[in-house]
Amino acid sequence: MGTERQGIHKDMDMKRIDEEGNVIADYEWGEEKLIYEEIKAEGAEEGAEGAEAPPEKCTVTLFEHPDFTGWEAAFTPGEYDHAALADGGAANDDCESVVVSPGCYAVLAENGEHDGWELVLSPEGGDGTGRYDGPALDALGNHPDGKHSVLNGVSSMVVHEGTAEEAKEVAAKAKKGRAEGLPQRGQIDLLDEGSFDQYMSDRPDKMIVVDFYAPWCHWCQLLDPVWKQTAEQLPDQEFAVGVRMAKVRSQLLLFVVVVAQSGSVSACFARWIARRTASCAWST
Q: Does pTM top 0.70 for this prediction?
């Protein structure tokens, strides 16, 4: 519909306002037509060509498979033990590839208390842009004696925005705090022949309860859910500060070993674990 038929003429001062009464556009008359010009809010971004992209948020993303597929779990700066990683979507220690965003550093650790082997990932590492696929992680994270690698073994992580040295300091503080405090809820550290001795020597003041299991063993399968429930309830016990639980996969029949490095809690825990596992109908 033309402007003349609507009663619109050049003597009118026309503006467009929003529902709050703010002027958001002006209408001006050219020689033969009405010109519409949008008014940008103060501080608004310029057009796409001249606009500056917002800074990327520091994020470390873990992936299930070595080619950045499978489940995907993104973590912002902070300390993540085994339970926190699982809550964030990183399931069952199955991480096989990682992406580190610019300005961000990740300190990956083998065990749930930020100890064991440690690996620092930078935004310039991997393929040069912070993308670490399976082979890149495997090359960086191989145990010195070659007995295990970082793949499927990440149990805790620190994400830090800053420098690599700062990230290492944050991880060291997290490790110290965990070593002095309670085990995390549900924590069962997975050990093998390459990590067992170091794990024990790192905890001279703890009583370590180790489940040596074989996946094919019927009694091992019966014990497994009870073992997990025990780990869930351990932090609620008065002796929990002095106890850690672990598992070692083997080809032998199931047996549980209590390494009583801290004798003050041995008797209490022995009675408690005996009550917890009695329903499994297994014997040593």
A: no
